[in-house]
Design goal:
The chain has 77 residues and is an alpha+beta fold. The protein contains two helices and four strands, in the order E-H-E-E-H-E. A four-stranded antiparallel beta sheet has the order 2-3-1-4, covered by helices on one side.
Length: 77
């Protein structure tokens, strides 16, 4: 959980194929094409990022690439 004023990194995670509608509806910022799906994830630390990647792996979803696309200031609590 981020603390007030902490920075949140945004990552673009590209996975192979189109993932199920149930998964895409549960994740904000999802775009899908015929060959890949793009997920946008706001991450507070490396542990959270690794958790997301592990969940994708556990679901059998193939990772194509991941890139940091910038910092976001988290809203004050």
């Amino acid at each position: 959980m981020p603390t007030a004023g902490s920075d949140v990194m945004r990552y673009r995670i590209v996975v192979r194929g189109v993932i199920s509608r149930r998964i895409t509806q549960a994740i904000e910022g999802v775009r899908a094409s015929d060959q890949e799906t793009v997920l946008l994830a706001d991450v507070v630390d490396q542990a959270q990022l690794h958790g997301i990647l592990e969940r994708l792996r556990d679901l059998g979803i193939d990772l194509v690439r991941i890139e940091s696309i910038g910092e976001r200031e988290s809203p004050p609590h």
